[in-house]
Amino acid sequence: MAIKKSALYSSIWSSCDELRGGMDASQYKDYVLVLLFMKYVSDKHAAKKNALVEVPPGASYDDILALKGDKEIGDKINKIIAKLAEANDLKGVIDQADFNDDGKLGRGKEMVDRLSNLVAVFDKPELDFRKNRAENDDLLGDAYEYLMKNFATESGKSKGQFYTPAEVSRVMAQVIGVGGATSGSQTIYDPTCGSGSLLIKAHDEALARTGYDLAIYGQEMDNATHALARMNMILHGCPTADIKKGNTLSTPSFTQGDTSLKTFDFVVANPPFSNKSWSNGLNPAEDLFSRFALGIPPNKNGDYAFLLHLLASMKSTGKGAIVMPHGVLFRGNAEAEIRRNIVKRGYIKGIIGLPANLFYGTGIPACIVVLDKENAAVRKGIFMIDASRGFIKDGNKNRLREQDIHRIVSVFNSQAEVPGYSHLATFDEIEQNDFNLNIPRYIDSTEPEDLQDIDAHLRGGIPNRDVDDLARYWAVFPGLRAELFEPAGRPGYSHLKIPTGSIRSTIFDHPEFEAFNRAVTDLFDGWRAAHVRKLKDLGPGGHPRELISELSESLLDVFHGTPLIDPYDVYQRLMTYWAETMQDDVYLIVGDGWREAARLRPVVDTRVGKDKEKPDVTAGRQKYKADLVPAALMTARYFPDVQTAIDELEAKRAALSQQMDELKDEQGGEEGLLSSVVDDGKIAKGAITERLRQVRGDAEFDDERAVLEQYLGLMDEDSVAAREIRDKRAELDAQLASKYASLVEDEIKTLVVDEKWMGTLAADVQSELQRVSQTLTARIRELAERYGETLPELVDQVTVSSSRVDEHLRRMGAVWS
Prior knowledge:
Elements: H1 5-14, H2 25-45, H3 61-65, H4 73-87, H5 102-105, H6 109-121, H7 139-155, H8 166-175, E1 187-190, H9 197-210, E2 215-220, H10 223-235, E3 242-245, E4 255-256, E5 260-261, E6 264-269, H11 303-312, E7 314-325, H12 334-344, E8 348-353, E9 366-372, E10 381-386, E11 392-394, E12 397-399, H13 402-414, E13 422-426, H14 427-432, H15 454-459, E14 462-463, H16 464-468, H17 471-476, H18 480-484, E15 485-487, E16 493-496, H19 503-508, H20 511-536, H21 544-559, H22 567-592, H23 594-597, E17 601-603, E18 617-619, E19 622-625, H24 631-638, H25 640-667, E20 678-679, E21 682-683, H26 685-695, H27 702-742, H28 745-786, H29 791-816
Parallel strand pairs: 1-2, 1-6, 2-3, 6-7, 8-10
Antiparallel strand pairs: 4-5, 7-9, 8-9, 10-13, 11-12, 14-16, 15-16, 17-19, 18-19, 20-21
Helix pairs in contact: 1-7, 2-7, 2-10, 8-9, 8-13, 13-22, 20-21, 20-28, 21-22, 22-28, 25-27, 26-27
């Protein structure tokens, strides 16, 4: 059975549980990633002639698995890995983690058990990488990126710099135009490549858009991170990537002769911010490669050193992008002179301001500086984007959403000026600002201030200015304004015609809003009709990434220009659903086909907790999980009567529970008639039975006996209802199991495409419509409440209240005296 992406991620991440405690994430990542690498190359290349990676006898993952329980497992794993490294020029890459380190892995049996459990994590049928990779969809590469992200998150501020967030990498790849590559001989270079994520995103963008497999070059100074990059390239199908080890500034690896750098078509970089030791091993004034002809950066800040190296590494037609702290845009002295020289030469195509706290090595806001030598001579200015407010909180970091990525790329590549978001700063403007490129000087992205109207506070009425500010709503609902507001009897002010509690219903029920609702719904229905056939035609060999790209772009186009609805919000709804649910479904379908993907999957361990699954269907003693077609969807379609009966029984139990709670609250106190059977706030049936036996026949306890019997009767009714629910659920599960087994392909497609996928997305569109009415409602209510009572009225109320307090105090004083 094909594996879901989320299941793959979860399975691999669970391997880290075996190592937590003995070391931190910056260390245990080396063990997990090496085993993932070994598993992958063994599945993909073992026993194959002319394979890009040679797996010699005795150097496969099967050989590692055979060591489970072996007293010398750590030492033997080291030897197996060393054998593979020797055969593939990977010494110093995959053999850095010591699997025989008792300081990290424990001694004796502790090490044996830990490593045996760790290697067994990858020994699962669903983790067979020979058959779990849809064409053009890098399933394992994505899993590697997932691990890198999590390792970076857990490694902390000082150790997470090996990874550039995938979202930022995607933006950079798209804005440098690598998707417009014109030849397979073109090149991509990253002088501070870390784990290689930026390079891979740029390479994949070119491959997806053009089919060209561009040559990859990179350099990384840290030994362990260099090893990660080498493995990352192989796992992503780029084994020929040339990743060098060393300090790019002092000893660049890619040169032409002794005094020239090798130049590249596309360059990307996310160098360490504000590196204070950038000039170690280097005399900038005597640089052999003339990288600092435009100025020498400050001794204690290397930001411009990396930018200048990047420029020197670009062909005359080269394009590039580099992540920089915002300080490079406005700092003075030596950096100001370098910035002036770069701007005057037209090398900077654009600047994209990013949200704070995106990166793992720092929380400060950063920017992407986009470079373009080819069009430098005719450049008229620098295109700027302030994207600092487009993000979502993700744990302790911020993250760009799909809609943020798409908006940045679309606006930048079209050079579209969007008020408060983007602007082409001409060279004249820049010169007038003394070549200070700080984005707020050119783009005002602040929200307009919500001004208070003093006259309205004094005399009442809602200022027409505030009502006019809602013009985008009145343009769509021209008659609604008159339904909500009327003149206040003096120029410039209005009154709300209806109670504040009726604002939402007045908007939602207005014919113009109903017409707008229908129009938006029709847009979605048209999009749905255009794509249902394609979705139902999915099957083995399909391309999930191409599918979601087509679906999302067409949805964005359909809603483009729709008033009051942000098309990017609708786009994000689809992309979120894809990430959370639909992607897994599609991978199952393209891996196994509809019928196999819809089969119930046995669940071995049904305990609910971390990495445990709750079953959807129980038939006999076997628990099952429904991955593609949810049990709730099947029940609603085929067995609604049974579910209704269960719902009614559960409602009955809820009512019985409420009655018991009320009776216990009333009679369970110290003097209550149930006090004798309450133990630690609970009442047991046995305690009631015993107490009834004790008071049987004694008239003195008639009242207590009646309450005890009432409570016992409620408990008996609850037990009967619980038994009936269990029986009904067992009946439903048996019917579901039978129906799952007999589903035909057309039924599955209807359930999944029409009801599950499109049903969810249709509800999401309705949520966007509700947000329109809710936003308008909230603003009108805010204005009505703000000016609902005038200042003189409030003063009168305070005077009356003060008089009442004074009178109350006077009376109290009289009593005390």
